[in-house]
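USER: Study each token:
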Amino acid sequence: MGAKVIIITVTEPLPIYAGAATAGAGWAPPPMETVEYEASQTQAAEKTLADARTAADRLGVDAETVHIPQAHPAEAIVEVANSRHCSLIVMASHGRRGLRRLLLGSQTSEVLSNSSVAVLVVM
């Protein structure tokens, strides 16, 4: 078929909190904590991508791995799909329902809502 798979993982920045819990003043982590967080996120992303690369190689699939650091996952996925002229986005859904879905959000739902590229959701 000549198809190529682009395997993406996105790591988000360390959250900065504002609101009632911080009396409206907000809170930002100390610089060292941010550096440690980013390093641990990068390490986890590299392992995820290495495992995915191994699986693709074993199956004979032409695959490229991409780590997008410090980004909102749904936005980054849509941006990469558009910039690489992908014809399909394949995502997993954790199947969260009800209040958990509202509290945790859904990257898959956001990609489905914002992508002009077809999306296949695997449960």
